[in-house]
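Predict structure. Chain length: 144.
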Amino acid sequence: MAEINSNSRRWLVTLLVVAGVVVAGYLLMPRDKLGGPGGGGNLTWFTDDDGKTFFADVARKDVPFQRNGKEVVECAVYKNGEKGPPFVNHLIRYDAKTGVRQVKKPLAPSQTWVSFSDRGAMALSRPKNPDGSPMDAILVDPNQ
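Prediction complete.
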């Protein structure tokens, strides 16, 4: 067998280390709804009644959309601890004119949509029990 000189050995070790880091990073990276970086699976939560009820469907970027004659928007579903009932914490849509992502509280038809870049958006999207009490927020995964 041919002997490997020290420069070739260093190059080979460096290549193997870099390849190992890339593979490990890819395997440990979270996935989003569409299988890319971010979450996991291909479903997300939607509502067509301002957050009163919710359903899982294939993730899409064109919210709002029409379904059975109703406007459908994405929603974030949480529960308080492992045994708490799931509830819609906030609604998400993209403004048709600007394409800007917006948020609002559920069951508040008179509330206006707030751009995610506005200061108030963080407070609107922060998980809170429907009754306002403190909670152990757990995001509910529609893919489970």
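Summary: The mean pLDDT is 81.
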